[in-house]
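step: validate -> pass
step: tokenize input -> pass
step: predict -> running
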Amino acid sequence: MSLLSVTPAEGITVTEEDLSVIAGNYGYEFKGNEKAEFTTLLAATCNAMQFVSEMDDYQPEPDFTITPRENIYFPMKEDNVDNAWAYRFDLWHKSPPSTLLRDKSVCIKDNICVAGVPCLIGTDMMSGWVPKMDATIVARILDAGGIIKGKAVCENLSTSAASFTAATGPVDNPYAKGYSAGGSSSGTANLVAKGEVDLGIGADQGGSIRIPASLCGLVGFKATFGLVPYTGCVSNEATIDYVGPITRTVMDNAMLLEAIAGVDGLDDRQRAGTPFLGQVPRYSQILLDTRDSGIKSLRIGLLKEGLSSKIMDTGVESKFRAAVKVLEDLGAVVQEISIPMHEIAPAIFGAASKQGGVMGRTGRASGRRQVMLPDLYEKMLPVTAKSIEKMSVVNKNALFAGEFCWQKFPHVYAKSINLCRKLTETYDEALKNFDVLIMPTTITPADPLPLPTDSAVMKMSKTIGKLDNTCPFNATGHPALAIPIGFVPSKADASIKVPASMQIVGKHWDEVTCLKVGFAWENAVAWKDF
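step: predict -> pass
step: emit ->
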């Protein structure tokens, strides 16, 4: 990179010791007069950095006169018994241009920006971050007539498949007190399941919409990569970022997806094929129009490797196979298919998410052309021993593992991205013969929450069996819909019954077929009695 000047500006101070620390990280020893010369050049480089640092940021800001936000407060325990609310407020559009979500109450996962409302991201390693912007999906919900009632708790830095890591306390499963609600969109799932709101928004970097939906008896949809803009949502690793609906019914899910989908001109995740706003399918109307024809003759591939894990819960498998029989009774043609690469997909995803995630969480993500959130990084960075102390065990592990892997396996992130493409093409090949693929969403049911005194290894074990079938489709970008299919006994106590779930995976941009399958199933069966 060239310089605009080789002379440091007034007030810029860089010492030879500063440079030695950088070079020492690489084991480099300066020769001759190199140290002095490169110290001068380093100081000159800081001219532009200091200049940009002092400039005003540039983020889209909402019109508070049209979309007022009132009654903002942090909920007390007596009004928040399951620790599911992060912040409460009332937010609506005075003259919404659409009535699609008219008078529907909504909660938003607390890694999503709402201007003027504190955002916790499930952590106390920093405080006082009040976003300046509304996420695109927030603006779209308001435009559709939705009423946002507050922010729902997310797991610590939005990184856990079990609901014990948020700084505000563990989130309980709505069907089993003391059991996990799943993560990281734990608060959203709890609130929607209990009926405290009509609709919810979650975010998904490995299953964080579908896992809570699975464990809480809800419908959760991770749509095709890029369909729903991620603008204004806190990112871990941009290649696996998704945001989407968590609802009690497939029809509600279709309506909410319709309201938030489509190009926003800001999110560079939105690739070729993403519909513009006027081109977004009318998902809910399509479901009504095709309700009578249903799924007769639809080709459904039952993924063999989605049930082949040694830790596959027998209750979940039995319930899933019974749910498959319902699809057959509805006229679908179900056939088992083997995709051996599915079994190693979590390893490929893990390499990308571990190394990419640590870059995102430490403010080093680059190569993006989107709305960034420097006001968050100003609060959260640099990462120090004090801030690490306030991380959950899941985030400490992610930090340590991510940094170590960059040192030990510096080439693997790039290779994992290439292998994600190979994985995508593998599922695409299978989907040439099927309309959708199906498998259990989570291969184990909700677990009891760990005790605060449990070891790090014990706490991490609470996430096992949750991402096996969800994370592959974060890596590949395929749409994946979770629907509830009944209750199963908890592994810890057979007298405790918790929800089970089926995942429906479709072709890129074919959300409609996933929704049709889910809609047909839920209209044929009362899932709580199944």
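step: describe -> The chain has a mean pLDDT of 96.
step: cleanup -> pass
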